[in-house]
Amino acid sequence: DWGRDALIVARGMAAAGLHQETRDVLIQFGRFEHRGTLPNMICGNDAGNRDTSDAPLWFFTACHDLMLAEGNCSFLDAACGERTLREILVSIGQSYVSGTLNGIRVDTDSGLVFSPAHYSWMDTNHPAGTPREGYPIEIQALWFAALSLLSRHDAPKKRAAWQQLAEKVRRSVTDLFVLQEEGFLSDCLYASPGISARKAEKDDALRPNQLLAITLGLVNDSAVCKKILDACAELLIPGAIRSLADRPVKRPLEIRRNGQLINDPYHPYQGRYTGDEDTRRKPAYHNGTAWTWLFPSYGEAWLKVYGSQEKAIVRSWLFSGLPWIHSGCLGHVPEILDGNDPHTPRGCDAQAWGVSELLRVWLMTL
Predict the structure, then answer these.
(1) pTM of this prediction?
(2) Distance of alpha carbon 141 from alpha carbon 218, whole angstroms
């Protein structure tokens, strides 16, 4: 039971009308909440692995989607262990602000969330291909969405403070993440623990995580959104989106194995997920390999920016993945594909969050 995976899948379940099943998933994970943390994975009754900064935030988004699907917010008062879902959400928000036991904290100057290394979905380790220690863009988008929910559903006297913090996060992202020369958002502001976001080092790697800044409402400047979409179009392949653009970077990304450099730090793109696991596949996993789960977010972002008149175009993009549905594990989509042509499917043959996100966004086009 992977935390972020299950909570992302819950969004598609809610959209598909599986409301009770979605409630079950959320209650299952919610009862494990402890001082702002949720499990990165659950092994039986062992929920000790909490090395994730995004699972607690995806919990907010999944709750929001279920409330939207049901047309009311009664779910927030459902019992989850000895607390309600609402109390659990408040606990996560307050704990992020004060700092969690595993190193997640809100930077008081900017309002942005600091994420320890390997706490995002790009968490491959050994070798450390994408540490992303600091302030990853999708963590800020999820944090903004969480603050927006708390500003509507926490106790009335506390809502204004959450709203003010959400507005602060939006201003900080505009000030710190927009790369004027490149025309897209920095993927991560790299920083060590205790370093403010304003003193962090901007990453200039073009990655698809910034799409969530559009879909979750963090970035609402139409000019900036259109530049993000234009840039991320470079990452698209049929049915998936590459995790890194095939272009040089100014900020080097070194990947080392037993002390030895095993990549080109200034051109870290790797378009084929093949070969030895530690020296070839893991370094490629988030540095050029294409993913199915994040691919539909491009279409969702396009609809948000250009409107419902673009539904047919978005459907055509989603349908580009039909060959993968009609081959391999029939009716499903693979976890990943090679970023390079011919985009050979790799990894898991039937990936839950790949097919659930495809369904969720496809339903938006009907």
Answers:
(1) 0.97
(2) 6
Q: Tell me how far CA of residue 332 lies from CA of 8, 298, 329, 362, in angstroms.
A: 16, 20, 6, 14
How far apart are the C-alpha atoms of 334 and 196, rounded to whole Å?
39
H runs (alpha helix) in the chain:
3-15, 19-30, 55-70, 85-98, 137-153, 156-176, 211-215, 222-232, 282-285, 295-306, 311-318, 322-325, 352-364
Q: Beta strand 201-202 with 178-179: parallel, antiparallel or unpaired? A: unpaired
For the record, the structure tokens of 240 come out as 């998936």
For residue 347, the SS3 value is coil
How far is residue 356 from each of residues 7, 111, 292, 331, 335, measured CA to CA in Å? 11, 31, 10, 12, 12
CA distance 359 to 284: 27
* Three-state SS at 34: strand
Interval 323-354: pLDDT, tens: 999 999 999 999 999 999 999 999 999 999 99
What six digits make up the tokens of 6? Answer: 């299950």
d(CA 275, CA 278): 9
Q: Identify which of 230, 135, 136 has the alpha carbon closest to the alpha carbon of residue 184.
A: 230
Q: Which amino acid is at 278?
A: D
pLDDT digits (tens, 9 = 90+) for 131-166: 999 999 999 999 999 999 999 999 999 999 999 999
